[in-house]
């Protein structure tokens, strides 16, 4: 059992350290709040869809008491289409000294004043067009700033800074990712008066000294209202509520919640059987992003703390799947249709 648990830890650690290293903080540090929000937006829905997947493998039976225990791991994956790999938006942006120099050098500012004017330009915030790859986009593309131009006064003269498009050093961080993976240990306990409980949990794991810890916890409940109906139903039906939170170092903090109606029916004896299941859920997810935005005013390489919260786009999902019980093992696979489609698979021990 210890080796089985360690497997879960390794899965999470690999994903956390590969996808959310110190490099991510440095990447976001080159983007303003508006640019960073559009850049990381697909991850909000991706994480939310993953976290809300794989909770239900079967509906608890409508009985007063039964020993139904399942312990295993759930693998989730959310799909990204081409539309999620690029973005285009308007927002505020503050150029660093190097970017400001590029703009000034292509203007009518005399050479002797260019450094000073570039400093003035880098001290201001502009409304610009922002476009390029998102965090799941291509590393062969970069986020661009579409500057509409401005006028800078210095030494009694007005200097026109012409419109220009500046490429930032920020590229697709997850290398054209088409599937966002995640895995979680899960235990389900039932049944008492048609009710079962499910939990997902990992102890805090330190990623590194700079990022901090990885934390994850979730729980949910299902209840079969047929427990209170005297006439048997052709399928088992439940209502369920599930919520969880995940924190990846000091960069991301995610919460996800889903509430739905589920149905299943088991075919075959207790030792070897197949259970098709379906669900219709209302879901939500949010992610809080924290990082230091690096600017060159008033002091070069000044760190400006940035914090913002984004909401996932998924709101309703329809799930179809099936689980197969083979002696003490249970294998389940399901597919969810939503704004961001997702796939989950579970492998567990059933007692």
Give the helix/strand layout.
Layout: H1 2-19, H2 22-28, H3 33-51, E1 65-79, E2 86-93, H4 97-105, H5 114-122, E3 126-133, E4 142-147, E5 150-154, E6 157-161, E7 164-171, E8 179-192, E9 195-208, E10 212-223, E11 236-248, E12 252-264, E13 272-295, E14 302-311, E15 316-326, E16 329-337, E17 342-350
Antiparallel strand pairs: 1-8, 1-17, 2-3, 3-4, 4-7, 5-6, 8-9, 9-10, 10-11, 11-12, 12-13, 13-14, 13-15, 15-16, 16-17
Helix pairs in contact: 4-5
SSE string: HHHEEHHEEEEEEEEEEEEEEE
Helix-and-strand structural type: alpha+beta
Helix percent reads 10-25%
Strand segment tally: 17
The end-to-end distance, rounded to whole angstroms, is 15 Å
Averaging pLDDT over every residue, what do you get?
88
Shape: elongated
Instruction: Give the domain tally.
Output: 2
**Major sheet attributes:** 10 strands, antiparallel, barrel
Beta-strand fraction estimate: over 45%
Radius of gyration of CA atoms, rounded to a whole number: 25 Å
Runs in which pLDDT lies below 50 for 5 or more consecutive residues are 1-21
Number of helices: 5
Lateral arrangement of strands in the main beta sheet: 1-8-9-10-11-12-13-15-16-17
């Amino acid at each position: 059992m210890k080796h089985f648990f360690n497997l879960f830890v390794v899965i999470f650690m690999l994903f956390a350290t590969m996808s959310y290293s110190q490099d991510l903080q440095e990447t976001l540090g080159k983007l303003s709040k508006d640019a960073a929000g559009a850049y990381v937006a697909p991850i909000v829905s991706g994480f939310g869809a993953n976290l809300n997947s794989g909770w239900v493998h079967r509906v608890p039976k409508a009985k007063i008491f039964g020993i139904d225990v399942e312990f295993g791991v759930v693998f989730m994956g959310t799909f990204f289409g081409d539309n999620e790999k690029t973005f285009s938006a308007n927002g505020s942006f503050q150029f660093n000294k190097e970017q400001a120099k590029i703009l000034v050098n292509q203007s009518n500012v005399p050479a002797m004043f260019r450094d000073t004017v570039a400093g003035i330009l880098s001290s201001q915030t502009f409304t610009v067009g922002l476009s390029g790859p998102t965090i799941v986009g291509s590393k062969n593309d970069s986020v661009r700033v579409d500057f509409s131009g401005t006028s800078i006064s210095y030494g009694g003269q007005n200097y026109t800074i012409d419109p220009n498009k500046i490429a930032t050093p920020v590229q697709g961080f997850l290398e054209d990712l088409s599937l966002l993976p995640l895995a979680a240990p899960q235990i389900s306990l039932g049944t008492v008066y048609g009710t079962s409980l499910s939990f997902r949990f990992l102890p805090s794991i330190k990623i590194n000294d700079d990022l901090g810890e990885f934390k994850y916890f979730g729980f949910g409940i299902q209840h079969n209202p047929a427990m209170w109906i005297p006439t048997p139903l052709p399928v088992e039906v439940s209502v369920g509520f599930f919520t969880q939170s995940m924190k990846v170092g000091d960069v991301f903090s995610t919460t996800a919640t889903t509430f739905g109606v589920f149905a299943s029916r088991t075919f075959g004896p207790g030792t070897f059987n197949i259970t098709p299941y379906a669900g219709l859920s209302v879901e939500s997810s949010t992610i809080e992003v924290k990082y230091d935005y690096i600017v060159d005013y008033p002091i070069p390489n000044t760190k400006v703390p940035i914090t913002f919260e984004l909401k996932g786009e998924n709101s309703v999902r329809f799930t179809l799947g099936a689980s197969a019980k083979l002696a003490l093992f249970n294998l389940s696979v399901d597919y969810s249709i939503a704004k961001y489609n997702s796939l989950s698979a579970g492998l567990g021990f059933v007692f």
